[in-house]
Amino acid sequence: MDIQFVLYKLILCVVILLLSLMIAMYATLAERKVAGFFQDRLGPNRAGIFGLLQPVADGMKLFFKEEFMPANADKVLYILGPSLTMLVALLTSAVIPWGGTLNIGGTEFALQVADVNVGVLYVFAIVSIGVYGIMIGGWASNNKYALMGSVRAASQMISYELAMSMSIVTIVMTTGSLSLNEIVAQQHGMHWNVFTQPIGFVVFLICAFAECNRAPFDLPECDSELIGGYHTEYSSMKLGFYLFSEYINMFISSAMISSLFFGGYDFPFMNDLGLSHNMVTILGTAALFIKITFFGFLFMWVRWTLPRFRYDQLMRFGWKGLMPWAIVNMVLTGFLHLLFKK
Amino acid sequence: MNQDSTKISLTNRSKVVSNKKMTLLERFYLPAVLKGMSITLSHFFKREVTIQYPEVKRPFSDIYRGMHVLKLDDEGRERCTACGLCALSCPAEAITMIAAERKEDEKDLYREEKYASKYEINMLRCIFCGDCESACPKEAIFLTNRIVPSQYKRIDFIYGKDVLVEKKDARVDVSKRQTPEVLTFKQDKSKSHNK
Amino acid sequence: MLSLYLFYFLSTVALISALMVLLSKKPIHSVLYLTLTFFTLAGHYILLNAQFLAVVHIIVYAGAIMVLFLFTVMLLNLNLEGEFQKSTLMKFVATLTGGMLFLVLIGTLKSFDVGTLSEHPELTQIGLVKNLGKTLYSDYLLPFELSSILFLSAMVGAVMLGKKDKN
User: Fold this and answer.
1) Would you call C28 and A139 a contact, using CB atoms and an 8 Å cutoff?
2) What is the pLDDT of residue A192?
3) pLDDT tens digits, residue range A206-238?
4) How far apart are CA A231 and CA A243, in angstroms?
5) Interface residue C56 vs chain A (CB under 8 A)
6) Helices and strands, counts by H and E, chain A
7) Do chain C and chain B touch with ≥3 beta carbon pairs under 8 Å?
8) Peptide bond into A216 cis (omega under 30)
9) Is the model's pLDDT at B191 over the cut of 80?
10) Is the dihedral of CA A186, A192, A193, A196 positive or negative?
């Protein structure tokens, strides 16, 4: 625990925090731009060139909006809800390996805040408590639409968590480790998990959409039926926190998908180009961010293509569609693993 | 089912709804999802149809029926005689006017002895049908290809003579809509329209 | 040294939030305080170098069971005042039985050797996933499998109860 180590981790934490916030900020712009392009429009382009200052303008607007609190709301919980959502959204980034190691002055610095040896489970723990923010906020609003939205969110997240964890179990089985760093390291040299686990990937991807409350699984906030769902009564920056955390979740999910199934910071011919160690690390991080960008785009692409599920369809799909496939995948993987490895 | 085949289809795009059992591949939905996503992606690369409004303006036809103008004649005198035919023909009852007699010293302001001292069009009522233009016997009122701008107050949409009458130094060109054909048509009393 | 301070901090928070579970007026607050208690317990597990247990504790208790609790309490809408007003006799009996349970607990703990906190808890490796898995699947295989059967039967039972009656 020398001072250098602590300082380095502190800097890394701050950088990742700022990066997550920046990316979430510009993801809102990207979402509107992408939506525009999909609908043969241009999207916002007035604030700055290509609308680059639009997120700043949106943020300013949210800050200056009136803070409204319903008369019979539970004051403490009403504030706790969005804060908790934001906190939980930011927590996951701690275990994601953002790159290899940087060699500065003979000391190796890993681009990962914490290499927890139960990293995958840590992510699940965070995801499973992510529902609290929505539930608390929805209940504290003292509004039936908000409550309905939060109840939907809770049951949806619990349902899809199962299939999600089962699709991860296969990866843990083949890798033999729960550490995300180890899982990424084992995929080096294009041994990406998506080639060996296509079913697991599809199941995980769909569940990631559901866990982020993104279309076509955005029932908790569906504006047509629940007029905004759990954040119906929220305004100003509290609403901003809810909306913002959705984009952070999206970013983290993309990073998780890239790390678990697409080799994380691995890119083709990584060790054959004869580049220096630090160069490889920087290029690897860039590769990871390209993958993250692609999956972020995929999130938006799906949102502007597919219509929303009906609630019974959502539940049937989660329990009768994804769960059996995840179990089949798990059994199959275990069987093949026993047969071919050793 | 036989009835459907004899039905006349207007677009050839309507599909008969059926509750047939889906095949195994269809029940996976993924092919259909991918198909939908390819459609949206093709739109992603299509040219955007947006027109950047204040900088770029959509070209209007010359006979577009927009904001009205009260024309002056060649010597700069008002053509309107306050006959009230435009108000009478207006289906939305948007036009009101008050007639007045011309004074001796106003000969260079008004062409005839009678003129409209007050002439108002309520742009919120107006439906821009162009009946006032057709009804006018003095070629005084025309619709132009200008847009009625938005306002913050309802009262600002009641346009008086100060807005409607064209300025002497900024004439509004209506020659495209006042073709000889239109003029002869208007003179033809055999047409029920002009009775 | 740091872990000692953390221990005292977590214990304080755990005790206070556990008390607040009982003392808070609104049922929702009780549930949330209970969740906080679980989080502090997970913190204790981490201090004992049992990361796997800590994370599973959060996933199972805070992530699943307490959400269902919250769910139920929210939908029942137990905020009505005066619902828990009981007669003086009931209060007296409740205090008496509660106090007796407390006495029994103290008596048990007094005679039981809790053991002292190891000098270096981070050196014990039993809490790590690999060691835990090996122990679970060798020494405790039968209890493990039996508990899985118990869970399975519980699941089947839940589905049976939830099924619509055909008649």
Assistant:
1) yes
2) 83
3) 888 888 888 788 877 777 777 777 888 888 888
4) 9
5) yes
6) 13, 2
7) no
8) yes
9) no
10) negative
Closest approach of chain A CAs to the CA of B56, in angstroms? 14
The first and second tokens of residue A120, run together, are: 């995958």
H helical segments located in B18-173:
24-28, 30-44, 85-89, 131-135, 161-164
Name the percent of chain A lying above pLDDT 90: 1
How far apart are the C-alpha atoms of C19 and C29, rounded to whole Å? Answer: 12
Averaged pLDDT for residues A294-301: 90
- B with A: touching (≥3 Cβ pairs within 8 Å): yes
Q: What is the pLDDT of residue B1?
A: 44
The structure's pTM equals 0.78
Q: Does C32 touch chain A (CB under 8 A)?
A: yes
The reply to whether A43 falls in a domain is no
What ranges do the domains of chain B cover?
Answer: 68-188
B128: alpha, beta or left, given left = phi > 0 and alpha = psi -120 to 50? left
Residue C115 has pLDDT above 70, yes or no: no
Say whether pLDDT at C150 is over 90: yes
CATH architecture of C1-83: Up-down Bundle (1.20)
Q: Own/partner pairs for A57-60, CB < 8 Å, 24+ apart? A: A58/A28, A59/A25, A59/A240
C117-124 long-range contacts (CB < 8 A, ≥24 apart) are: C117/C7, C121/C3, C121/C47, C121/C48, C121/C49, C122/C49, C123/C49, C124/C48, C124/C49
Please give the pLDDT value at position C118: 59
For residue A305, give the nearest of B36, B46, B48 by CB distance. B36
Chain B residues lying within 8 Å of A320, measured CB to CB: none
- Return residues 32-51 of A near B (CB < 8 Å): 34, 36-42
Checking ipTM against 0.90, whether it exceeds it is no
User: How is chain C split into domains, by residue range?
Assistant: 1-83
CB neighbourhood size of B92 (10 A): 14
| Range with the largest mean pLDDT of A263-272, C89-98, C117-126 | C89-98
Which residue bears the tokens 């889906």? B22
Chains A, B: CB contacts under 8 A, how many? Answer: 32
* Residue A307 with chain B: CB contacts under 8 Å: none
Model confidence pLDDT, tens digit, residues C45-63: 888 877 888 888 888 888 8
Q: Look up the domain containing A281 and give its range.
A: 69-339
Record: fold of B68-188? Alpha-Beta Plaits (3.30.70)
B38 and chain A in contact, CB less than 8 A: no
Nearest CA in chain C to A134: C67
Determine the Cα angle at B124 with ends B118 and B127, to 5°.
100
The A residues from 106 to 135 touching C (CB cutoff 8 Å) are 116-118, 121-122, 124-125, 127-129, 131-132, 135
What is the dihedral angle through the alpha carbons of C81, C87, C92, C93, rounded to the nearest 10 degrees?
-100
A23 pLDDT exceeds 50? yes
Per-residue pLDDT, averaged over A53-63, amounts to: 87
Tell me, yes or no, whether A256 lies in a domain: yes
Asked whether residue A169 is assigned to any structural domain, the reply reads yes
